[in-house]
Design goal:
mainly alpha, 5 helices, 57% helix, 0% strand, elongated, disordered N terminus
Length: 120
């Protein structure tokens, strides 16, 4: 279907207009989902930039990314375990649970899990 046929069918819309409307709708849904005003995309961008280092550190705790080092699942180093997650003090945990930025990231993750079924 061409742009001309879309316009000719009485709806007065072009593919570009439909795409832009869908894109704007998805952006607004994402903003609301993340708890931000739909008018200030910069707020979402700034928040994302502020929590990315925390998200990266959290991701690096995965055993496959921890490079045989501290991780919350298995003792390490694998060849001769000397440390276990249960008795290890993860510095990152204090940053995640003891700062406003950490609290906001945890709240976002909780909200994302809770709201996921409705985000479609």
């Amino acid at each position: 279907m061409s742009s001309a046929s879309l316009s000719a069918n009485g709806h007065g819309k072009t593919w570009e207009g439909i795409f832009l409307a869908i894109r704007a709708s998805a952006a607004q849904k994402t903003h609301r989902f993340c708890g931000f005003s739909t008018r200030r995309f910069e707020d979402l961008q700034n928040w994302t930039r502020s929590v990315l280092p925390l998200a990266y550190q959290l991701e690096r705790l995965a055993p496959t990314l921890a490079n045989d080092g501290p991780n919350p699942e298995y003792p390490w180093p694998h060849a001769n375990p000397q440390y276990a997650p249960v008795s290890f003090h993860f510095d990152f945990w204090m940053e995640l649970t003891g700062t406003g930025r950490g609290h906001r990231l945890l709240k976002f993750v909780k909200d994302a899990v809770d709201k996921f079924p409705s985000f479609n």
